[in-house]
Structure formats: C-alpha cells, structure tokens
Amino acid sequence: MISSRTPNIPSPVIWGFVFYFLFSFTYAEDLSEYLRGIVIDKISDQPIKDVLVSSDSTYQHSGIDGEFQIVIRNQSSQTTSVEFSKDGYIDYFVTINSGDSLPHLRIELYPIIYSGSEVLVKGSRADSDYVSFPIRTYKLAKVQIDNAVHPQHIFKELPGLIVKSYGGPASVTSISFNGSQGDRLALMLDGIIINSEQNGIADISQIPTALLTNIEFYPQGSSARFGSSALSGVINMVPGKSGSWVSHSFGENKFTSDAANLNWKYRSSEYSISTGIMDYVSSNDNTDNGVDFQNAINQKFLYFKSKYMLDQSSDIDFQLFSVFNERDLSGFIYLGPNKSKLEDELQTLNIRYKDAKVSALITIKKSRMDYNYPGNPGPPLNSHFDLSVVSEKIRYNFENYFFVFQHSREKNNSSNTSYISRDLIFGSVEYSTSIGWIDNVTVLRIDHELNNDKILVAAESILQFQPGEYWSLSSISFSSNFKRPGFNDMYWVPFGNPNLKVEQSTNIYFRNIFKIDDITLDINTFYVRYRNLIQWLPKETGIVYSPENIDKSESYGYNASFKLIRSPFYSLQINYGYNVHKHRNPELPYHSGKQGRYSPKYTASVTQNLLFNQFNFTMGYNFVSSQIRFYSYPKDLYISEYSLFNFSMARNSTILKHRVNNVLSVNNVFNLKYETIYGYPEPGRSYSIKTIIYFN
User: Fold this and answer.
1) Residue 477: Cβ-neighbour burial (10 angstroms; 0-12, 13-18, 19+)
2) For residue 68, which of 10, 15, 62, 73 is within the disulfide window of CB 3.0 to 4.6 Å?
C-alpha cells in the first residue's frame, strides 16, 4: 500500500502502462547484435569510464569499469566503423566487417597528456574536478539530461527527492529530500554550493539543462564535508558538456530555447564555452477556480572554463558561470490577479590549482534579486537582495589523511535588513583506512563564525564493506550536522527572528546494494533526529509567517531503488520512498507528533527506456502522497496527492557526418490538475521538441 487512499489513475492508463512494460521487456530480448568490450588507458592499464563509443546513429558511454556495449545493426555497406573518443585521449577507430562474428574488444586509448587524478582513498571519484564522495552516488546520465527540457523534469528520477515550485518552469523551484525542506539539501555546481545565504535554498530554475553533463546525488547529510546546507543530502551538477554542439528547443507556452557549446584545445590547454537563451510564457487555466495563472521567464546564461596542464601531475583552471532571469509571476491564485516582477542573477567565479598533494581554490559567488509586488491584496512590496561570498580553500593530502582549511566572507546588502556581514573559518581532517575487509572514512570539522563565541562541530564516519558476490555493498554511516539560520531567517524586517538557534541533527544511515546479473537493488534506510529545527510558521491570521525553532523533530524511513538494465536496449528503474517526519514539541501542541508541513509520507517513480529501431522511448511515472499544508483545529488542511505521467521519444541520426539528436517530450500526459505548493498550480499537459547537433 502506498497510502491509505489509492491514487486516482484511470484504468486505461494502468493497462497501457502494463502493456508498454510487457512489450518493452519482451522486445528487449531480440534485437540486433551488439559489440562488447573494455576501454583501457594504455599507460596506466586502468579502465576508462565515460568514453563515447559511437557507430553510425548509435552511441553509448563506457561504464565505471570501462566496459561498453553498442548496437551493430545490419547495414547495406560491407563495413561498420566504431569510434572511441574521450577528452584528453587520442581517438581510436575499429572497422567491423559485415557478417563477421563480433569479438570482445580490448581498446587501448593513449592519453594526450597523462596525469594522475586525485582519488579519495577507499572512496569514489566524482566526475567533477572539485568534489569527491566517500560512497556510491545516484547518477543521472547525459542522455537523461538531454531528454529534459526544464531542470525540474530531471530530478524526479532520483529516489526520495521532491520538486517544489511556485507554479511551473518559470517560477522559483527547489528540491527537498526525505521530507526535509529545500534549505537542508546542498546543491553544487561543479563543487561550488549555490544555496543562497539569504534563504538557504538553491533555485534549480537558474541552472539551464543545456549546460549540464551529469548529476550526482549523495543521499545523506554531510555537514562535515560540505558545510551548513548539507543537513540531509548533497547534489552536484557537473557543467561543461564535451564536444562542440548547438541546440534548439520549442514547444507550448511560447517556449523556445537556444544554446551552443564550443570546446577546443591548444597545446597544454583546454577551453570550453557555453551560452544560451530561453523564453517561456505559461497561461494556465488548469485551476480549481478557473482563474488564468500566468508565469513567464526570459533566461540568459554564459559558462566558460579553461584548464592548463603545468606538468603531468599539476594543473590550474578557471571557471565562470553567469545567469540572468527576468520573470513575471502570478501570486497566490486564490487572492487576486496581480502579477509580480522578479529579476534575479547568479554569478560564480572559481580559480583552482591542483597537484598530487595540494589543491587551492578561490571562489567568488554573487547573487542578486529584485522583487516588485504591486499590492492588492495586501500592501505593495519592493525588495532587493544582494549577497556576495568570497572564499579561499586549501586542501592537502598526506598518505591516508586529507586536511582542509577554508575562510569565507559573506556580505549582505539587502533591503529590509540592516547591513550584515559575517566571516566564517573552518578546518577539517579526513582519515581513510581499512580494517580487515571493512573500509572506514572519518571526517571531523570545526566551524567558527568570527565575532561569535559559538564553535560548531560536525563529524561523519562511514563503514563500508562487501558481504558477498550478490550482496555487493553495505555501508553504515553516522554523522553530526548543523545549519546556520539564513539572513532572511534572522534579519528580514518585520518577519525575521534574531533569536534563532543553529539547527543541529544526528543522522544514521544503513545502505545495502544487491546486484544479480542485470538487476540492482539499492535500499537506504535512515533515521535523523533534529534539534532546534527552523520552520516558518503562520502567525495569527495565517497570512504572516515567521521562523521559530522546534526543539525536537525526527525523520525516519527508507528509499528503495530497483534497476534493470539490458544495455543498450532496455532499462527499468523503480524508486519507492517511505518517510515519517514528526515534530516533538510540547510547546506547540497543534502540530506535535504530526507529519511535517509539505513532507509527503510516500513517494514513487517508474522510468522505462526502450531502444527500438533507432528510436529511444522513455516513459515516466511519479507519485507523491498528500501533504499537510496548514495545521488547523479540528482538522489539518492538505494538498492532494498526485500522479504524473511523462513521455519522450528520441532519435539519433547522422547528417553530413554530424550526429543529430531529436527529442519529443510530453509532460503531464493526462493533464492533471495539481500543486506542489498550495495556491500555485502547476501547468497542464505540454509538448516540446529539442534538436541537438554535435560537431565533434
């Protein structure tokens, strides 16, 4: 039982979904032959992951162990050419003769500049140059990102994540995990945390999908590694797609998007630049009271990265990202027709040096927002938020130890607050070791805000081992985490509360991964105990909200992920989450012991991919159970559960020797009326088409 009330899904939809599954599963058994093999670094003799293996209109990326499988179709020509390519390596070609039995290949790629990567001992290397994770992450691949039109469509495939928006792709959009709020999940762009110091939340609508290569999700709290925002989990979005390409998208709601990327190399240097623009105007009459709900956005972005190899073991790189949005946003749909205007901007600049022992990183992050609400109902509101963060970070590794020291200065020049700035320093030590068949990673962090007597301590310890052949991985994690109040929480006049305490939590995770042939089952159970949890609660009439500390809260449950991959023809992934999030506060009896606000108890998703005659079909289903939106007496108020179906069809082809990917997407196929935040209805059914042309 997913909930006490069965989701309202029409029976033809259920039977259609079952038929699609049976057809996909059966068909996946009998398709063209495919070439298998492994890709090896010719110097180090180590497997190479994420190598692009392409043949005519079919392509695949090598896995983490270097293995690949790619379709070899019956061609009219006598030979088929297979190309192996990866940045930093010389391209390699193999010719397959028609009618020959397909061998198991060992491909050796020669690096253009051979240098070692900084790999966390007993841990796993992330695809980003800036971050590493100690245990296996959930990943979204390039093809999943390419098939998405808006950022909020991507994250629904990850277990336990809930996407919340104020009315669709044009509006501010956040992500929460395991019932926690969006300000307790750290979002990073290539290792740089983009959560706003103003409200603690990262707005994913600011990150263009055209920019992203892959997304990694670390499903547990880790303030010891990533700081204040990482109370419940960490997501790292990796930008800078390889190769040179252009893309164009269009669809309903006057949606258009154009983007381009250029990569080139010169001697010992690599360069990448991306730019794009997106327009979207929704007119949504899909509301209970028939009111037309409108949101619009114009987005422009620029990304640049350069990397210079100093020698075989050291390099220096520079990275710049800038995005600017102009938005027209409908307000709370049940109060009136007036729209507000919002301009927001995010800029990050990173300079990093790295060698075998030391890495040094300087980061500058600026975020700005201008909000204008004309009033009616309520008074007019004009707010200006302007924050800048400058940080310097040094990381040094010595045998099994990693030492990190960082200083950050946050400046807040926002309206409705007094000028506020704070200096933060922290130091951490990480130790990795093996005790018999158990691997251990432990991190201790000491964090201090200057001119403040309070010293915060965070710690994380992970025990990881492999019980057996099919029980491929088991890990037990313990962590102590914290989150500082944001500037809005404490200083936003007249709503802030300057007496707020720092949030703290104790997190325990027990994760097990089972793998049998093509099937992987990943079960992650968790228990989190919060202290001084910050929640914005309604005052008096319920229109005005202000933050308060809730003395005790707890969250417990599990996320299960089932994956079947018959690469490259068919894949099925089923995610199911169960989360109980309760407050234990006798001073607030009207919600003590109840499920937290906007914290669904059940979540589920199903994603199927089928390769059929050069077409890639994807069918997705998402379910989110009902959520309390307002504590009341004698009966709490809820937003309804919802079930969404999405569909996409992609085809890869070759035009003038250039690979072309065309994607047709249909979101909210059955035109469901639903809300993720009360009073801000999500758009109904929408169509879009995306075309990407790759030049190398």
Assistant:
1) buried
2) 62
